[in-house]
TrEMBL record:
The keyword Cell cycle applies. InterPro entries: Cell_div_ZapA-like (IPR007838), Cell_div_ZapA-like_sf (IPR036192), Cell_div_ZapA_N (IPR042233). Keywords: Cell cycle, Cell division. It comes from Blastomonas natatoria. SUPFAM superfamilies: Cell division protein ZapA-like (SSF102829). The keyword Cell cycle applies. This is Cell division protein ZapA.
Amino acid sequence: MPDMRLTIAGRIYSVTCQPGEEQHLARLGTMLDAAARKAGATGGLTETRTLLFAGLLLADELAETQDRAAEALAAQAAQAESARPQQGDLLAHDNDTELAARAIEKLAQRIENLAAGLENHTART
């Protein structure tokens, strides 16, 4: 397993990773270093508190990204729902021959039932 050296907030850390993940780990280390430098910019923090605040900064960024992704998915689902044809809207089935055929069959059955009802009503009077 490769052994990597990451510099975070001026300190060097030795980290082991899976083969082929070196570049990804180096990218993560760079992100953590930037967050640690931002967190420790006020000075006077211990190493532990600097890394804690760096983790919180990164977690905040992640939460914002997840919220935006969830909002985008919800908007996409709402748009897909509004674009979907309604079951009772026969003209909405024009592009789907199977749905249109089923709708026509249902209409034909309803017409036949109405006609039979009228015939029975007329025969009784």
